[in-house]
Amino acid sequence: MKIITYSFVFLLILVSSCKNAGFNTSDTILARVYDSHLYTSDLEGMVPFGTSTSDSLAMIRNYVDNWIKNQLLLYQAEKNLPEEQKDFSRQLNDYRNSLIIYKYESELINQKLDTLVNEQEVETYYNNNQENFELKDNILQVVFVKIPDDSPRLSKIRTLSRSELEEDLDSLEYYCMRYAEDYEIIDEEWITFNDLLERVPLKVYNPEVYLTNNKFIELHEDSWYYFLNIIGYGLNGSVSPLSLEVKNIRSIILNMRKKMLIKQMQQEIYEQAMENNDFEYY
pTM for the complete prediction? Predict the structure, then answer.
């Protein structure tokens, strides 16, 4: 095909796609490799509406070039491989069957799976499988405030940061929103100790010993005060707290239900088919 004709066909496609956000219904051959042909309809929807002319032309040209190279390679493979190496009928049939079964099982799960997991189920699973919930990091629940040392509410914030009462923590957050440079008020969630150390200039050589022996920490450095109240902690290698694992456990329980539902469905189909004499062994 001549370059002029090649470009002209591309431009025709481009104009059609820009006008109609698609391709013309009348097919035009864009390229040929031996007995295989590429048509304009094969490129339908490839160019997003609003794409510039230059970008559209580049996308189309690249697609056609790749199609030609792939067809040439396929021709050589078909020509040179023995017939037994080109027979994929069994693999394709197995793949098709797997897709159909997967689709059926997915629809069954969507229709029949009970997705409600109550707190008792979560707690029971946690208590029975604690060996699966080992911490990989040191974690803690902490009240943390970074505040300028000339803040007018420094003394108040210092006092509130040492409390764990809900009303005091609410008041602390109120003051932190107005005066603190950085703060974290965690009463149920957990953060890693390494994440905290990125925000507080503590010199810690043994995190386990530090967490075990410190509750309230006050640090003054570079015109900043840092107040920390370690409400709870978990050490690397110990059992992860339940509150940190709830989401994970819910997913595990739902996955177990899915497997049980599929297994039950398979058994029911098998028993029904046996009763109806729908299969037999030879």
Answer: 0.66
133 burial level (CB within 10 Å; 0-12, 13-18, 19+): middle
What does the pLDDT look like over 213-251, one tens digit per residue?
Answer: 999 999 999 999 999 999 999 999 999 999 899 999 999
Tell me, what amino acid is at 49? F
What is the three-class DSSP state of 152? Answer: coil
Average pLDDT, rounded, for the chain: 86
CA separation (Å) from 108 to 143, 146, 174, 216? 46, 53, 50, 54
Domain boundaries of the chain, sorted by first residue: 3-83, 135-234
Distances (CA, A) of 183 to 139, 145, 167, 227, 246: 17, 4, 17, 9, 25
Hey, what are 247's tokens?
């989401």
**Max alpha carbon distance in the chain (Å)?**
90
